[in-house]
Design brief:
Elements lengths: L1 H20 L3 E2 L2 E2 L2 E2 L3 E2 H69 L1
Antiparallel strand pairs: 1-4, 2-3
Helix pairs in contact: 1-2
């Protein structure tokens, strides 16, 4: 976790340096849309923020899918544990009955 914070801090410092070193005014053209003249650093900052937001949203979707799978597996595991317990108790009951029958036949002889 600390390494991610360190990498994020380094990226933030690099972006800040880039913004302050690029005060050049540029006009962005995208799909027929023209922006007013804006500093290049601000455009890069907006692109970085948009990329971080998209990454966060995609990771959130992945997290919910993983959480759903974990819940399903926990539910399945609980059901299987109950089945296992009932099978173990029936095996123990059968063992006790078999021991009693063996003891009864031994006393009959």
């Amino acid at each position: 976790m600390q390494i991610y914070l360190f990498v994020a801090l380094v990226c933030l410092i690099v972006i800040a340096v880039f913004i302050f070193q690029n005060p050049t005014l540029v006009m962005v053209q995208f799909l027929g849309w023209n922006s007013p003249e804006i500093q290049l650093g601000i455009i890069v900052l907006a692109a970085v923020i948009a990329g971080a937001l998209i990454t966060f949203l995609l990771d959130t979707v992945r997290f919910f899918k993983v959480a759903k799978t974990i819940r399903e597996l926990k539910t399945s595991n609980k059901k299987l544990e109950k089945i296992n317990q009932s099978m173990q108790s029936s095996v123990q009951a059968n063992t006790v009955v078999a021991d009693k029958e063996a003891a009864a036949s031994a006393t009959d002889e």
